[in-house]
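Hey,
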Amino acid sequence: MNCVKCRELRQVFDSKLGKYIEARSAPYYRVCTELAAHRNVDMERARNDLEEHQLVCVCVLRSEAMFAPRPRNSTVGKAKNPEAAGS
């Protein structure tokens, strides 16, 4: 990713994910799940922010277009008139 915003949002998401995993694995999780629930909400918000940005990010769109598979019925490189192509 060349986009600074993508990198920043990815770092925030990774940080929130780590905090959520830490809260889930804490010994007090069995007694009170409220902290883990709050961390889960924070993590999901960070994920949504990242995904929303990637929907409009030029860098992501460009890389997806470059690596996108071509459909099987694509007319790219095929003759428009199949009868002319056979002669």
